[in-house]
Amino acid sequence: MNAVIYGRVSTDEQAQRYGLASQLTELRALAAERRYTVIAELRDDGFSGIDLDRPALTRLRDLVRAGSVQVVLIHDPDRLSRRLAHQLLLTEEIEGAGVKLEFKTTPREDTAEGRLLLHVKGVLGEYEREKIKERTLRGKREKARRGLLPAGPIPFGYRKDPANPGRVVIHDEEARVVRLIFQYLLDEGRSIRKIAEALERAGHPAPRGGHWVASTVKRLAQSEVYAGRMWWNRLAWAGNKRRPRPEREWIAITVPAIVAHDLVDRAREQLRRNRTILSGRPSPRFYLLRSLLKCGACGRPWHGVAYHGRRHYRCTSRDRAYYIESCGSGSRRADQLEALVWDTITGILRTPTVLAQKVEAHRTKLGVRDVEIQSEAAYLERQLATLDRQERKMLALYLDDDTFDTAAVRVKIEEIGARRRALKDRAEVIRARAGREKVEAGREDAVRRYCELALKGLHALTPDGRRQLLLALVDRVVVNRDGLEIHGVLPGRVGGRELLRVSA
User: What pTM did the predictor assign?
Assistant: First the structure.
């Protein structure tokens, strides 16, 4: 009789009693003892017993359906599946095709007692799996609460500390690459694609030995790990996707910091800003103000178009393929519009007194907003502390007084929980706003650098260099019927005429 041997071991079971090699060895001996002809040995190495989607199991089921086999040999029922329902489904499928299913550890008898034994083994296997999972998870959670890394890959930039199990130390070469990413992003204003290209050209080591790509750079630039804090139990599997767990279940683990914490907040805000100003497919023609122009009439972006070979800017509401009605704004010649904005910005850069006034005004505005942010953050912190005290008081009353209304306590605690969630949501908004303000503060360094460029000669800048300058100093340019409004660090006027309305 033709037989197929099937073995399985999951990653967690590699070092336990279910060695894959030992399973196959015993099954070969069983096949020889019963004089079966083994036509295939199928193995699922590192696959969980709770899943049906396993390569070797799929191949086994195909052989059964094709009628190529008369016997299937498996070491134990839990090697077929850890779930009783799956065991019953697969057993019915195999035996329903006229194929014998035999286990090394559990002799099969087609009697009520034999079927009962198989079912009991299945239940015990499922129970054992759940207990192993529970003990493992409990151990990992306790390890994380003590500030140790429970398991999983070590983040790029770190290595395991050989002297302290569960701790990590900074890997100098990789940490230098991490700092370089933040420098390229925050100090030089490069896009994540340009950063990935620069790292790849320079031959810097990439995570897991691969190539540098934009998604890798983005992930590293936003990671709190490099500011000295990582989270365990933050995500959970939901089907085939990972979903965030409730914040109360997160466990913070302190690791050595590679960069200052405010740099991570600034990097996240800079990436958000890059998405805004660098979105959309680049035009085949060069447009200096691409992604910076906004319509003063309807608020939609302006983009570059060509009329009879000449470059123009116009409101996207005029694209009838996307919008039914246009706001009525006319188009502007690109060379004239670009000259107005460029001359305004460079005129300020070339005038030290005006430049100093603009930078000081920008710094003052940021200082006022910073005080507002800190004040609201402190208020939210006090409110959260008050809610914590109220909750502890309600629980204490409930525990001390048997006559206390349980339903009323439950309602009150639910109200406190709802208020706490609202306060935490607001605190997250404030934190994001603080990150944006830090990015704004960092842009003053860009102003100083470009002022030095002005002294060396702005006329020598390439078109891409001129665009990088504007992206660093200008947030948006609002196009109105009677002029322009430049928003950013350096607003200004042109030639003394009211051609531009300016706004910081």
Answer: 0.44
